[in-house]
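Exam revision sheet. Question 4 asks you to relate a sequence to its structure. Input first:
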Amino acid sequence: MPDSIYAASAGGRPESGKRAVRTGMKEVIGNFRILAKVGEGGMGNVFRGRDLMLERDVAIKSLRPELACYGEVVERFRTEAIALARLQHHNIANVFSFFAEDGQYYMVMEFVDGEPLNRLARRRGALPWREAVGLVVQALQGLEHAHHAGVVHRDIKPSNMIVTADGTLKLMDFGIARILEKVGLTRTGCVVGTLLYVSPEQARGGDVDARSDLYSVAVVLYELLTGRVPFDSGSEFELMRAHIELPPPPPSGLVAGLPPALEAVILRALAKSPADRYQGAEAFRAELEQLLATADSGDGARTVLIDLPTLPSAPAARRTATHGAAGTAVAAPAARSRVPLILAVAVLVLGAAAYGGWRWLSSQTTELALPAVTVPPAPAEPVTTAAPAAAEVPVSVQPEAAAPVQPPAAPAPVEAAPAPPVAAAVAPAAVPETKAPARAEAPRPPRVERTAQAAPPVTAPAARSAPPQRDGRCARLVQQLSLGERLAEADMAYLRVNCGN
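Answer key, structure tokens:
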């Protein structure tokens, strides 16, 4: 049996053929046409009707005949209707009218076309925590409005919360539990179902205020998140004792992924003493809204990752930090790129120094150039020119250590001072190839046979004393200079001392 006035009205469509004639009621009551019976509860039956004057669907709740005989119940029923009519809030089903006809009492209310929260929870199971918190926040908004008006619901449970197609939650059946308590009807099936959500003070039969509603809301939130209520038992006594004495199991032990802050909020709202709970729906709602805002923006996680308080937002901090890291990565190659530049400059400097050294050696080569030796073509007959014996100079060649020395192909002639002719018969044979001595012994120049057939005249200067004679090493060094090769300092010194001016 449904325990909400809309428990059987999911989708808001009346059952086919379920007219007032079949329910034992008149087809028209006052200005309302009865369309269908949609529910039944502790107070009576609930019908879907049509307002003939305003042309809108309404919910019509009738008081059970056995209760109508209690004047106190009827008066409280009317008082509750008056109080609820003053509650104009989008999360509360509004009361439009209260009237009596033929000894029956009726309350006309807003017809909510939606699905009871208990049916939604059975259909979907445990809800994502953001969705569950969003629904409970709406319930707390409605309760906050009612509590400020001095109205306590006293019977908060999922079947008294209807969710419309657009996600709006509506609270139903304010004050009904209080009316039933006054006439000793708390043992009906309606109230038994409510025991799953009653506060400890309700279970003890104590005074009830707004904080009792907040406890019941926390039980609903617990069930939406975990798929079960914190306390359940087949015994009403054990169930009430659990609400009064036993701590609720932490919801994180039943479902993974709940924020620890959300669990702390739920456990505080489920405190046994009203003084330890939230003291108003506004404070409870603010805590849940803060959790939603933090989860949606992700500010908490980003603040840990990017500790830049001067930045406008955490996402901007992430972008700035990423760009900064990239800038650092780019700066390092820039520093390393100076190494090739330094090497290039060093190569240029060394090249310039080498070029300067070569130019200097070239100038030294010019100064050390030997007098030209003109060798005319060999005549058919040997020519003998008289000359002092002392003027005869044998031609000696200093062999290289690794390769034979070959004279330059065409040395540039250099004019020299005139000198008396010196006759010397030189054999045209090629200079024999010799190897460098293994030890530091002076190399022996090869003997040159003088013959009468290949001795061209050699002109030597006579006006002044003859320059120092050049051995084979001088010839080799001069040849290297003429080819542009670089000489060691020892070779340069040898040239200056032993090979001419």
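Marking note for examiners. The radius of gyration is 60 Å.
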